[in-house]
Amino acid sequence: MERYLIETPHTARDCKMLLDQIYAMGYLYHFDWGCKVGVHSGWAIIEADNEADARLAVPPMVRNKARVIQLNKFFHDSGSFRDAHEANVGRERSLDAG
Predict the structure, then answer these.
(1) Beta-carbon contacts of residue 38 (< 8 Å; ≥ 6 apart)
(2) Nearest to 50 by CA among 67, 26, 70
(3) Of 48, 68, 93, 94, most Cβ neighbours within 10 A?
(4) What is the pLDDT of residue 84?
(5) Topology of the domain covering 2-73
(6) pLDDT, tens digit, 9 for 90 and up, residues 53-70
(7) Buried b (16+ CB within 10 A) or exposed e, 65-93
(8) How far is residue 45's CA from residue 5's CA, in Å, rounded to a whole number?
(9) Which residue, among 74, 69, 68, has the nearest Cα to 87 in the 3D structure?
C-alpha cells in the first residue's frame, strides 16, 4: 500500500454537508481542517493501493476538486533522495509545459 495526502477544498456553504458525508464514510477522524480559521479545506494522509482508491475517501460532492498526492520518504544515508529528485525534475518541467 502507498500513502496519499488528500486535500479537499470546499466552500463555507458546503462545509457542514461535507463534514457530514465524510463522517458517514468513516473518514472524519483522518482529516484535519482549516475551516475554523476560514480556510475551507481538509487534509488527510491515508493508505491505499492507488490514487483512484485514495480518491474514494472523498465524497462525490468535492471529489473532482480534491488533490490526491502520493507521498514518499527520502533517506539521506542511502543517497537515493538525490537520484529521485533529479528523476522528477524532468517530470515537473513536462507538467508545467502541459
Answers:
(1) 12
(2) 70
(3) 68
(4) 66
(5) Alpha-Beta Plaits (3.30.70)
(6) 999 999 999 999 999 999
(7) ebebeeeeeeeeeeeeeeeeeeeeeeeee
(8) 5
(9) 74
Please give the pLDDT value at position 79: 62
* Mean pLDDT value across the chain: 87
What DSSP assignment string belongs to the chain?
A: -EEEEEEEE--TTTHHHHHHHHHHHT-GGGEEE-GGGT--EEEEEEEESSHHHHHTTS-HHHHTT-EEEE-----GGGSHHHHHHHHHHHHHHHHHH-
Mean pLDDT of residues grouped by 10 in the chain (98 residues)? Answer: 97 96 94 97 97 96 96 73 66 52
- C-alpha cell belonging to residue 73: 520518504
* Pairwise CA distance, residues 19 & 62, whole Å: 11
CA atoms of 37 and 60, how far apart (whole Å): 24
Could you tell me whether strands 67-70 and 41-48 are parallel, antiparallel, or unpaired per DSSP bridges? Answer: unpaired
Task: Give the list of residues 6+ apart from residue 63 with CB closer than 8 angstroms, or none.
Answer: 55
